[in-house]
Design goal:
The protein is mainly alpha-helical. It is about 75% helix and about 5% strand. It has a two-stranded antiparallel ribbon with strand order 1-2.
């Protein structure tokens, strides 16, 4: 429902269950790769995938994923505990920043939407071809799209007559950053692609969701095979179990994007990212204490980890209720669209 492979949820979950960091990363990447194939097919039918955006983006993503895999194995070979602490720290820092930013943006956009609904409230939504974005493009994307450094990549024809355009250079640089995160954290990079595409490059939420899932097929597949599978860092049985659940989750999540605005998708994203952040930030003290970086008893570390695990699953349960509730509340609308199609 928010274009990510779900690694920022699965990663913290399996590490909380006792899987060492590097094995969690490799397994996560493998499962996300297979899941993204299903998800991209669904979003392709919904018209949410921009192949030109994805292909240029992947040039940088492959470079970044290779670098990330090398960094992870380097720390693991020095000390597996150091590797776990490194991965947990990166998770906490990135998810904390992105989650806070996305939630702030979501709440601000919701406030603006409610103001626009009042008589003479002003405000506007982008509507074209039956799709609603529900949030205006910021100043940074406008400035970047104004830089005509050829070749330009065109997208979002559904929202703007003639489409929007961004230089290939910004796409490649974004790809390097996302690929690096994918290689280190065991995610498809979707949790990072969403804010970069929406808040930096100015891609609509709908197009971002589909294109993100599509690029994950290649980013996660490449990283899983070249950086982890050949070194024995994938738990295949666990990955297969994840995929069984995904068969249901992907269908529901993709269908929900047909009946919600771009603002709501941003809310889904923010809530899920913050859940991963809460889990890893509470797990970090125990990792640092194990390395003797900070003084903390084993009991205190275990208590903090337990708090993080419970908080994580409570937030994720709330996220699940929100998405699945939205699906069932609009099931009549979805059936009507399917019949018309």
């Amino acid at each position: 429902c928010c274009g990510a492979g779900g690694g920022f949820v699965i990663g913290p979950a399996v590490m909380s269950a006792g899987l060492i960091g590097i094995l969690a990363v490799g397994t996560d990447l493998f499962h996300i790769f297979a899941k993204a194939i299903m998800g991209s097919g669904i979003h392709r039918k919904l018209g949410n995938v921009s192949v030109p955006l994805a292909m240029v983006f992947l040039i940088g993503a492959i470079i970044g994923a290779t670098t990330g895999g090398v960094i992870n194995r380097f720390f693991y070979e020095i000390n597996p505990v150091l590797s776990d602490a490194f991965i947990t720290t990166i998770y906490a820092l990135m998810l904390g920043f992105l989650g806070a930013y996305a939630m702030t943006d979501f709440l601000r956009a919701r406030k603006a939407e409610k103001r626009a609904e009042l008589p003479h409230g002003g405000g506007e939504e982008e509507v074209h071809g039956g799709k609603v974005e529900g949030a205006e493009m910021g100043n940074l994307p406008k400035r970047l799209q104004a830089m005509k450094l050829p070749p330009m990549v065109k997208f979002d024809y559904d929202f703007t007559p003639g489409g929007r355009g961004i230089s290939w250079l910004f796409l490649v640089l974004s790809g390097v950053l996302v690929g690096l995160a994918a290689g280190i954290m065991g995610v498809g990079g979707g949790f990072l692609t969403f804010p970069i595409f929406v808040y930096v490059l100015g891609v609509s939420s709908m197009t971002t969701v589909g294109t993100d899932i599509f690029q994950i097929v290649f980013t996660a597949g490449y990283a899983a095979i070249s950086q982890y599978a050949i070194y024995g860092f994938i738990f295949y049985t666990l990955a297969m179990g994840m995929l069984l659940g995904s068969l249901v989750g992907i269908q529901i999540g993709a269908m929900v994007t047909k009946v919600v605005k771009g603002i709501t998708i941003r809310g889904f994203y923010a809530m899920a990212v913050l859940a991963g952040f809460v889990n890893r930030i509470f797990a970090l003290p125990a990792k640092l204490a194990e390395m003797e970086v900070i003084p903390l008893s084993n009991k205190a570390g275990a208590i903090l980890e337990t708090i993080g695990v419970w908080a994580f699953f409570i937030v994720i349960a709330g996220f699940g209720v929100w998405v699945i509730g939205t699906f069932f509340a609009n099931i009549g609308v979805l059936k009507g669209e399917e019949v018309r199609a």
